[in-house]
Amino acid sequence: LSSIEKLGLIEPLCTYKEGGLHIILDGYLRFLACRELGYETIPCMVYKDKEAYTFNRMVNNLSGYQEIRMLRKSLESIDEKTIAATFGMTNIRYRLATNLLNQLHPKVTEAFEQELLGTHAATEMVSVKPERQAEMLKEMKRTNDFTPAFIRALVLKTPPAQRNPNRNPRMDRSAETKKHNDLVERLEEAEKQHDFYTNLYRQYSADLLKMALYVRKVITTPVIRAHLEQHHPATLGELNAIVMET
Known about the structure:
Elements: H1 2-7, E1 13-18, E2 21-26, H2 28-36, E3 44-47, H3 53-57, H4 64-74, H5 80-86, H6 93-96, H7 106-113, H8 119-125, H9 130-143, H10 148-156, H11 173-219, H12 222-231, H13 233-245
Helix pairs in contact: 8-10, 10-11, 11-13, 12-13
């Protein structure tokens, strides 16, 4: 609503003509905003296919780093108040992350640019000094865990001398770290159980194969087979079944 009020409707609606009506495939919120602002007509693009999923699939949201660059670039030609009003916000200073990039290690900044880290995760990295940030990034890549919770756990393990003295840790870190550690413990326990049952199944398969070879030897020995046929036909049938199933 704020964007259309300040800049006008930039992107037309996508519609599909059905009978005497036009069904909106993409842009329903823009339609509501235009109607609230008193638009009498709205530009539309009419498509032949009635496939709304196609438009949702093509949405490509900005990463945190891209958003910061976009806002900073906008400030070169537009004042902060106008940008904030366009987004329907009081101010955008906290979205500019003025000090964030200056406090990140170059490798962490690169990971931020590559979208390995979100804005929230990058902000958590500032809790420690740049050298420690690089060490933490290596550990995150090794475990393939770039979540803020994991970063907080690494921050808690950081010696006081390597922490950022200008940034106070969040009060709820201990609770979130405990939650993360509990999750890690459950995953490790599940992995142990998986390994146990995998090894058990392998041993069972090996034992079954050995037993099948032994049973085959028994029932193919003429003297033993003749004795089983005469005195234990049911048992012979079971042994035959074991060999056939394996």
